[in-house]
Amino acid sequence: MIKKINSRMIGAIKAMTTPLVLVSVLSSPLTNAYADQEQRTCSSIVATGNPEYPPFLWHAEQGNELHGALANLMGEISERINIPIETVYVGPWSRSQQEVRSGRVDLMAGAFYTSERADYMEYFSPAMMFTKSVVWQSNAAPFEYQGWNDLVGRWGVTVINNSFGQEFDTFAKQHLNVLTVASLEQALSMLGAGRADYVLYERNPGVAYVQKLGLEGVRYVEPAISGEGLFLTISKMSPCNSPEIKGKIADALRDLVAEGEPQVVLINALEEWRSNTFPSP
């Protein structure tokens, strides 16, 4: 449950926004904002991300914009590099990755590092924020969980093209039975209905959606399966992928992280999500 901001929560938020240096990184019809890649120049930049990721990112029912801490951080970067950045909804998480891969969208606002993604995106350092991925269980069918091996032989669910870091992804491919579905809402509903043993997803977005869907019989368990940085990336096919533009973005991001801005936008996004999802009577 997302609770009122207090000193304890601020401490947790600081843990999600501590800088990290990553080694060997950075060396449906579409909207008019990014409709024709070949005709575009870098007079503006289009970003996207996971639309089921509150408080980091989410898509409201109206409009094609994404909201949340990462969208707000894109606005801060935009002001510093003096180039408009629009953070848009292009579909589910799997579609977002396809659009960045193709270069029709320039930036991915929030991605874990994997070697597969590094084939089509360049990563900026440091990480913008941090998040933990956990195992979600149903209270109606709990099982003992102390580590990855306790998932072997059970049926899990996660969202299409989701990653939990290189190490766990490799373990899952070799040892786990994990189905993939289009949305977090579908995955959690399957768990609540007893059609899966567990769901794999990030802790904070999962808490937000469990609360939104009223799934009182669903909870996460510790320890986390992984803790990863959320990185800003740029498509290798983007017309904005030039040394000059990347240098400006990298400088702006480093300054914002050093100034503690990710913590500020995350606190504001938590309040925004809470007030919009559970308005006062």
From TrEMBL:
Residues 1-35 form the signal peptide. The keyword Signal applies. InterPro entries: Solute-binding_3/MltF_N. It comes from the Bacteria. Residues 43-277 form the Solute-binding protein family 3/N-terminal domain. Keywords: Signal. It holds the Pfam family SBP_bac_3. Belongs to the bacterial solute-binding protein 3 family. This is Amino acid ABC transporter substrate-binding protein, PAAT family (TC 3.A.1.3.-). It comes from Marinomonas fungiae. The lineage of its organism: Bacteria, Pseudomonadati, Pseudomonadota, Gammaproteobacteria, Oceanospirillales.
